[in-house]
Amino acid sequence: MEELSSCFLVPGPVRMGPECLEAMSTPVITARGGEFREVMAGLNSGLRYAFNLTPSNGVPNQKSFSGEDGYKVVVVSGSGTAAMEMVVANRFRPNDRVLVPTNGKFGERVAEMCERFCHVKHLRYEWGRSFDLYEIESLLERSDYEAVLICHNETSAGITQDAEAIAEICKRHDTAFILDGITSVGGIPVHPSKWNAEALVVGAQKCTAGPSGIAAIAIHQRFIDRVHAIAEQGDVNPRYYFDLPAALKNANDDQTPWTPAINLAMGWSAALGNLKKETNEGRWNRCKHLARGVRQLFTDAGFTLLADDAQRSNTVTAILYPEGIDDAWRTRLKSTYNTQVIGGQDHLKGKMFRVGSMGETPVSEMIEGCKRMLQCFRDMGQDIPEMKVESYFE
Length: 394
Ligand SMILES: Cc1ncc(COP(=O)(O)O)c(C=O)c1O
Known about the structure:
Number of domains: 2
Strand content: 15-25%
CATH class of the largest domain: Alpha Beta
Distance between the termini: 31 Å
Radius of gyration: 21 Å
Number of strands: 14
Shape: globular
Order of helices and strands: EHHEHEHEHEEEHEEEHHHHEHEEEH
CATH topology of the largest domain: Aspartate Aminotransferase, domain 2
Bound molecules: pyridoxal-5'-phosphate
Largest sheet: 7 strands, mixed
Structural class: alpha/beta
CATH architecture of the largest domain: 3-Layer(aba) Sandwich
């Protein structure tokens, strides 16, 4: 039997395109020479585009990491979690209080991380349920919080937070707003300036279709001023590798304090070039188109989606397994149909699957993947009608 082509519909890491793979296969260069400065400048400029910031020209020695809007981008060697830790470790004093509303695993991880560096009010909602914005507002009214931190797009539950509404609440209470944008930047509209966001984090392997192991932060000058102010007071949290002032000093010269992830930076820069060609709006719309098709198709096929209707994510869809099905379905989907999606996490392990609609995934791959998913459910005894899958993605 002819081997089926691969359908890789995982919500990160996503498939890397040929431009990214080719760029990474470049022979070694030094970390301190002009060649790497060129790579860094190109990467910084691509990142500013993905973060939806004002442009920089991507030319070495011209402060490619900064722009007119007061934001700077800093590349971090490590996955998205490393970048988030850099934000939290540098921004807060051990006695600061922060508010972290969560409705899934990655928000909970933000809260857990903050607990290592400051005091946290963890406002837990059920996975996939929208935040109660009145509760957030009344907490900010009643006490002083240094910041509100959210996971913008909760990959574990397929829900996108109403960042604009939370940003308004933060503005009203003069509270810093910080977002884990690891599966939103490059896939879902982000507006750091309009939201008055102090920091936004992205991981390369998600919506921007770059390699795993490199990430970036966009931080506003207010954030930077605060970091310097608390350093002057000597009231800082411990950090060494993730020291922001050191990173900023080096970024001024298109450099990094430590040996950078050179080939990953090359690959990511190429992947960001693809994003720029497609445009942010083009990619946001394609992700939306893919996710809308998946949501409607599986709803019509009788499945239940985990997330609240009004806030379902356009980069990942969380779908509950029907009675009698568990992760054996995913194993079979992979071995028989060469198709990969991801399972549920923590208490939802074995109870649901998640379909990624991010990165450079073409519509044709999503259509083929959905046909195989439905067929695999039929193979396992589920009564699913014949459906015209293409019509959901027109
Ligand atoms: C929203 C979100 N935040 C954080 C992470 C963790 O990122 P990383 O695995 O790149 O450290 C993930 C990974 O899936 C994620 O989806």
